[in-house]
């Protein structure tokens, strides 16, 4: 089987030291991995990884909890660099995070909108992080509903919100959290959504699937997420792998 991991932080210290081994071919082959950044430093690291490894593609953006640490000048310099790089396939991760309550909400919204407008200008999808900000997130996205597309990363919201986001042109991405014992609500979201709107992600090195909880998560664990989706939707793992692979190729415009 062949898989597409739509979200993995390969630059993380827990992965980068062993990156050559992690990316070695395996029985359940991960053909493509999108590596999203969290700040300016990791944005440049994702670009380096994408240039070094055939299967790695970059997404550049500033995590909502990191927006206090970048200037508008630095942001514009980053955009000028990425706009002509073919292996930068998205902007993100960006979004809103009201869970931690450490970064001003208005500042988060301002930077979220900057990412949205840049994504529209460059005709790139957006990778969105959302924690306890559903109302503001939806209100902002609806302003751009005719122009924007993207991925809701590590989805943890309601069925109703997911359906609204799909109407706005978004795919819904699920991580290893759907394998957790307390994941009944998220599993219900998976059950109700069409497979044609679902993506798989490991969010490595985070969100390790339950059967591998004592290990650092890597893209190879994507198979366990596919197995969980297949069980929920009463279909084969092969079908989940095939359709989610096609979905990811479509949203990221990666056709090989």
From TrEMBL:
GO terms, molecular function: DNA nuclease activity; hydrolase activity, acting on ester bonds; metal ion binding
Record keywords: Hydrolase, Metal-binding
Annotated binding of a divalent metal cation 2, by residue: 129, 153
CDD domains linked: TatD_DNAse (cd01310)
Transmembrane segments: none
Name this protein carries in UniProt: Hydrolase TatD
Organism field: Dialister pneumosintes
Superkingdom per UniProt: Bacteria
Binding sites annotated in the UniProt record for a divalent metal cation 1: 7, 9, 93, 203
PANTHER family registered for this protein in UniProt: D-AMINOACYL-TRNA DEACYLASE
Pfam families membership: TatD_DNase (PF01026)
């Amino acid at each position: 089987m062949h898989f597409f991991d739509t979200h993995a932080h390969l630059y993380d210290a827990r992965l980068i030291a062993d990156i050559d081994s992690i990316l070695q071919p395996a029985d359940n082959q991960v053909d493509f991995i999108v590596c999203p950044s969290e700040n300016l430093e990791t944005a440049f690291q994702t670009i380096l990884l994408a240039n070094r490894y055939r299967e790695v593609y970059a997404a550049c953006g500033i995590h909502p909890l990191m927006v206090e640490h970048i200037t508008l000048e630095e942001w514009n310099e980053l955009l000028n660099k990425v706009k002509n790089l073919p292996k930068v396939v998205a902007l993100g991760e960006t979004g809103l995070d009201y869970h931690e309550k450490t970064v001003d909400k208005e500042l988060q919204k301002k930077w979220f909108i900057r990412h949205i407008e840049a994504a529209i200008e460059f005709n790139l999808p957006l990778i969105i992080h959302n924690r306890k900000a559903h109302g503001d997130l939806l209100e902002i996205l609806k302003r751009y509903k005719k122009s924007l597309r993207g991925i809701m990363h590590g989805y943890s919201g309601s069925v109703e919100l997911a359906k609204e986001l799909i109407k706005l042109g978004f795919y819904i991405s699920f991580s290893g959290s759907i394998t957790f014992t307390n994941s009944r609500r998220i599993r219900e979201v998976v059950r109700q959504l069409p497979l044609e709107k679902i993506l798989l992600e490991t969010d490595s090195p985070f969100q390790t699937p339950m059967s591998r909880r004592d290990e650092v998560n890597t893209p190879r664990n994507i198979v366990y997420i596919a197995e969980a989706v297949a069980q929920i939707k009463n279909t084969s793992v092969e079908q989940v792998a095939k359709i989610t692979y096609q979905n990811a190729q479509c949203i990221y415009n990666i056709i090989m």
